[in-house]
Amino acid sequence: MNNTKLTVSHAPFWHDGDNLFKKNLNFMLALLPAAIFGILQFGAPALGVMALSLSCAMLWELVINLVSKKPATIGDLEAAVIGLLFGMMLPAITPWWLIVVGTFVAVFVGKMIFGGIGSSPFNPTLLGMAVLMMSWKMFFDFDTAYVDYEFAFTALAPLAAVKTQGAAAADLFTLGDLFMGREVGAVGATFGLGLIIGGIYLILRGYARWELSVSFIAGILITAFLFHAASPQNYAGPLFHLLSGYTLLGAFFLITESASSPVNRIPMLLYGFLGGVVIILMRNIGAYADGTILAILLVNVVSPLLDNIRPNALGRGMNNA
Amino acid sequence: MIKRSFFALSRPRLTYDLLEPDPLEPQTIPVPDLITLFLTESIDSKRPALIKKGDPVEKGQKLVLYEDSTAYAVSPVAGTIKMIDSYSDDFGAIATCIIIAHDPVRTSQAQSMEMSEDISFAAAHLLKLPGAPPFDILADENVNITTIVITGADTDLLTTTSQYVTTSHIRDLEQGAKILKQITNVSRICITLPESLNGNAPTASLQVLQTGTVYPDTLPAMIMKDHLDQILPAGKTPEEMGVCFIRAEAVVSLARAFAAKAYIFEKHVTLVDKNASRHRIKAVIGTPLSNIFSQLDIQVNDQDRIIIGGPMRGYATFTVHHPVTPDMDTVVVQDQRIIPKISDTPCVNCGKCVQICPADIQVNLLVRFLETNQYEEATDKYDLDACIECGLCTYVCTSQIALGQYIRLGKHELRKLRADV
To answer: A16 and B4 in contact by Cβ < 8 A?
Structure first.
C-alpha cells in the first residue's frame, strides 16, 4: 500500500449515472413506435428514408470532426437523433440527394458551426428542414408524394386540404383516423398514439421537460379554439390541429430540444405556449400549410430572452448584500 | 452511490444517512508508530526554527515553527520528531507536515493543563481538539458572533459521526455548551439535529433546530435560511453575518478536556469501505489512514479514490498515509471501477442543474463563463459567489461536466483577482 497511486479530483464524488448517450438513446427509443408505424404504413421506402437520414447525419458529423481535427463526437448519439427526427419529417419517397443535403445543413449549419453539441441557437433538425422546405418545396407536397400508393383512407394531407379547401375539409378526417395514423404525411409524424406514448415516456424519464410539451399543446389548443370559435367555416378545430401535421412530433420531440429551449419553469411555459400560438397563426393566417418548423425556429430566437425571467440567487438582491 | 431513478419527473432527492437505533461503540485504532501532524504555515528556511528533526516531544506539547508563529500543532504522543516537510493542498497552499515517531515506552500521560475559561486561551491552545473548534474566529475581535450553531446533524451524506457523538455524549455536549457560552459570551447557542434523533435532544440551555433529511438541508447557508431566518448574502461567510458553526464533537472534546484538565486526541471517524459498509472508528489525531485500512482489512489499490469529508463536499487525498485530522469526520474509499467519469462535453442546457440548485443559480449559463475564465462576469451576472458548494449540479449533470471543480476554481481565482486590486 506504500506507493499506491490514487485518483484525485474535486468534489462531488458521486454522479447519478446519467449521460448524453443515455439521454439520446432514450429519445430514439421514444421515437421508435412512430417510426415503426411509418415503415408499416409507407413500406420499405420509409425505412430507406429514415436509415439514410440517420446514417447521413452521423457521417456528416464524423466528417466535420475529422476535417476540423476534433475528437469524434458521434458517440453521444446527438447526430443520430437529429438524423432520425429529420428522416421522420420527410415523405417516404424523398430522393436520396435531398436527404444528404438536408442532413448536411442540419448537422453542419444547425449544429457544428456553432461549436457542436449544446451550442446551437436553433433546433438543428428544424434548421435543415426549413432550408429544404424553402429550396425544394415540391418534395414536401404530401399529396403528390404518395400518388403511387393505395391507401384505405383519405389520401389527402390534412393540413394542406384545410389550407386549400377551407375548414370543411377537416370533416374528411375523423379524429380517430388522425390519432391512429390513418392519414398521409411525413413517415414518422402521422402516428399520433405512438408519438404521445413516446413523449410521455420521455417526460416520465425526465429527458424531456413537461413544461415545454404541456404549454405547447395548450398554446395550440387555445389558439385554434379561439380561431374556430370566431369562424368555424374558415378554421379547423383545435383537436384537428393537434393531431395533424408535425404537431405532436413538435410537442414532444422538437420543442423539447434542450440546447435551444429555456431552462426555468416560467420561461419554459411561456416558450412552449408561444410556440403553439405561432404555429396556429401560421397555419390559419400564414402561407404555409404546416407552420411547426418555422414556428419553433422562431421561438428558438426568443429563448435566451425568456430565460432572463429567473429567480434571484440565494443572498442576492438584498440591502446588505 | 445513489443512481438516477428510472422515473425522473421531479428532481432527485439525496437523503442523509441517519444514525442506526442502537449504534455500536466505535472500534479503537491502536496508536501507530508514526504520527503525522499538519501545520498551516509554510517552512521558511531563513528563519531559526523552534523545532527540528530529532527533537523529543511530550504528549500534549504544543509545536510551533517560529517565534512569532500563530499556527500550531499539538503532539498526541510522546516521541521524537522524525521529519519536518512541506505539504501542499488542492489549491497549492503550502503547509508543513511534522512526522513524529511514537515512543510507547515513555509516559503515556498527557501533560496536565491549567484550563482557563477565556477565549484567547482557547484560541491559543484548544484549536486542535478533535472536531476542530473555530476558536480563532470566535476570538477575532473583528468578527461579532451572535449565534453559535452546533452541528449535531451531519453535513454530508453517508456519514453519521456528528449524530453519533451528539447522542452518545449528551452530558459532555451539554457541559461543553455551557463552557462555550462562558468563554465566548454568546447568549444564543443552538444545535442542529435530525428529526429522528429528537428523543435524544439535549435539554434546557440548547435550542434544537430540527433538520430535514434531504441534502443539503444541513449546510450552513440552508440552516441560516430555514431556521435562523437569515439569508446568507452572496459572497459572505456565516461568520461575517454573526453565525458560527461548530461541530458537536468539538463541543464534546471541549467539555472532556476541561474535565480531564488535559488535551484530548481521539477523533471519531465514519469510514465507508468499498462495499459501502460503514465502520465507526476512534483514532488518535495524526494516525495515517493506511494504518486504519490495514486494521480494518481494507485493500486500497491503484486508481482508487480516498475521499475525506463525504461524497458531496469532501476532498480526495493523493496519499494513503494522509493522517486523521481534527476536522475529519468521514473517510470514503471508492473503488476505481465506480468512480464516475467526467467529460469535457459542453453544457447541453438540459436544465437539471437549475432545477436542483438550492441557491437558484443559473448554472447552465454560469458554466459558460467559468469555462472561458471570465470570473468577474460570472460573479456579477451569474452569481458565482452565491454558490454554497453543495455539489448537486455536478451530481445531476447530463454532460458530466466537473461543475464543482469549475466553481471552486472560479472562486479561488476571483479571490486572487480581488486581492491583487
So the answer is: yes
What's the CATH class of domain B119-260?
A: alpha beta
The answer to whether the CB atoms of B397 and A15 lie below 8 A apart is yes
pLDDT tens, residue by residue, A18-77: 999 999 999 999 999 999 999 999 999 999 999 999 999 999 999 999 999 999 999 999
Question: How is residue B295 written as a grid cell?
Answer: 486494521
ipTM: 0.90
Q: Do residues B175 and B182 make contact, with C-beta atoms less than 8 angstroms apart?
A: no
pLDDT given for residue A212 in this prediction: 96
Q: Which of the residues A5, A16, A65 would you substitute to probe the B interface, choosing the one with the greatest number of B C-beta atoms within 10 Å?
A: A16
φ and ψ of B186, to 5 deg: -90, 125
Tell me phi and psi for residue B246, to 5 degrees: -140, 140
pLDDT at B204 over 70: no
Matching CATH number, B343-420, of 1.20.1250.20, 2.60.120.10, 3.30.230.10, 1.10.1060.10:
1.10.1060.10
Burial class (CB in 10 A: 0-12, 13-18, 19+), B105: exposed
Per-position b or e across B204-222, b if 16+ CB within 10 A of its CB: eebebbbbebebbbbbbbb
Contact A8 B316 (CB under 8 A): yes
Residues in chain A, pLDDT under 50: 319-321
For residue B23, the 8-state DSSP code is P
Where in the sequence of chain B do the CATH 3.10.20 domains occur? 268-338
Full-model pTM: 0.91
Q: Distance, in angstroms, between A29 CA and closest chain B CA?
A: 15
Grid cell digits, residue B278: 460503514
Instruction: Give me the mean pLDDT over the B238-242 stretch.
Output: 93
